[in-house]
């Protein structure tokens, strides 16, 4: 990547550090979690400023995989509120819309550089596209 890149945001997945443990090992039958962790390691060692976002199982379209969410056309519905964590401890679902907004917002928040965040969607309004609410979300995770 060119050195002019100011920040790279990588979308990975919760469970990447536990791909050999149940139930993650079942989800990793074809190596998806293992390879996502390898991508994270590559980005972290690249010297390029980064932020990594690890969402739970993705809901809302486009439905690109052959899992239960795709068959049911799972949507976040009223789950627009955000739960964030660090340390690969969260389990749950995340709206693609919320994940995309988290990525965009992280680019403009200096203290997210070099950090890894997990994200899930839960019932509620959530931060939407409000930069101050996103700063609060990211800051709350780092203070825990």
UniProtKB/TrEMBL annotation:
SUPFAM superfamilies xrefs: NAD(P)-binding Rossmann-fold domains
Highest rank taxon of the organism: Eukaryota
Record GO cellular component, one term: stromal side of plastid thylakoid membrane
Pfam families (UniProt xref): NAD_binding_10 (PF13460)
Domain NAD(P)-binding: 4-108
Region of interest (Disordered), ranges: 122-144
Protein's name in the database: NAD(P)-binding domain-containing protein
Species: Oryza brachyantha (malo sina)
Higher taxonomy: Eukaryota, Viridiplantae, Streptophyta, Embryophyta, Tracheophyta
């Amino acid at each position: 990547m060119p050195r002019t890149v100011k920040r790279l945001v990588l979308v990975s997945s919760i469970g990447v550090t536990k791909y050999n443990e149940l139930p993650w090992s079942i989800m990793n039958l074809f190596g998806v979690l293992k390879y996502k962790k390898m991508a994270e390691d590559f980005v972290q060692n690249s010297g390029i400023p980064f932020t990594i976002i690890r969402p739970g199982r993705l809901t809302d379209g486009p439905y690109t995989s052959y899992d239960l969410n795709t068959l049911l056309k799972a949507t976040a519905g009223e789950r627009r509120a955000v739960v964030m964590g660090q340390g690969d401890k969260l389990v749950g679902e995340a709206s693609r819309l919320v994940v995309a907004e988290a990525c965009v917002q992280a680019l403009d928040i200096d203290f997210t550089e070099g950090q890894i965040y997990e994200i899930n969607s839960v019932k509620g309004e959530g931060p939407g596209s409000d930069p101050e609410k996103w700063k609060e979300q990211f800051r709350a995770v780092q203070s825990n």
